[in-house]
Fold:
Amino acid sequence: MLWITRFILGLGGVGGDYPISATLMSEYAPARSRGGLFVAGVFSMQGWGGIVTAALLGLGLLNAKVNPDLAWRVILGFGAVMPALVIYFRRKVHETPRFEYFVKGDVEGARRAIKDVLRQDVEINNVNNRDNGFRTNFLRYLPVILGTAIPWFALDVFFYGMNIFGPFVTSAMGLAKNPLAGVYVQLYVVLAFLVPGYYVAAFLVDKMGRKSMQIMGFSIVAAAYLITAFMLRNGIITPAAIIALYGLAQFFTNVGPNVTTFILPTEVFPTRFRTTGHGIAAGSGKLGATIAALLIPIIFPITSSTLSTTAKYMVMSNLLLVLVAIAIVGIVFTALFINEPKGKPLELSSGELAA
Structure:
């Protein structure tokens, strides 16, 4: 049942709502403040919903001593509440004017969509919505596909791989034998570093630019992991330093690729393929998340009871070095294949219309 329902969730969530929510926001937002509105209004909800609320719900059930056989069902079922609201509200949202105009070639539909937002009539010229064909479009936008999909893949490998960092942090603080205390520590780190990162990103993204911020985030996370790997190899286990590096990595994951990989696909693909391109990038990210969640514990058995403490530190160090290499891959593909879309109308940043 979990395999089947997760597949359906992939169709509706990652495959459907990820690109649709992102595209709706990008196509309605003004070019100059598109990134900030995007992050503050839409993407920060990932932190409050997917991380903080989920953690508090789990902690509440643990503190209430709810039978684990029931608790996981409550947590899973609670995840259906917000999507039920989305079904209702999404039906109230009109198709975007750009989709009506560039894809359907429906000038009247575009006029109605604009009136629905601006509450006034506008004049729109007729449009030639000719499609150049799959092969031509695929070859033209292949670099953009690589520039959005590979960094998102890299991000999710180390973002979910970062969860492997958690047990080490709690161990370094002497909390390894108290799982509940360890969960609280990680929740505090999220509230202190990860969630504020959304709002710092919202402030910077339209000033600094998506490409620069993505490269900066990858670079600082890689540096934090590299320093931690060096400390582990030399037996330097200082709880304050470990927490600081863990928090730094969380913070710059958000003031960097966790935010920008979500924004960029909505700005560098044309209207006709905007949700398709975003869906490919998001799917690549979830592939990275799956690899991190399934394979990292097998390849790097940090929690194995057969390993000595020193051996665990070496395994953790090796994992962090792999994550550093993956972050570098994200930097390279961002630098090579992404053109900065900051402040540009979507038709220019995507190459849909000539400047």
The longest helix spans residues 179-208. The mean pLDDT is 83. Residues 170 and 178 are 9 Å apart (CA to CA). The radius of gyration is 22 Å.
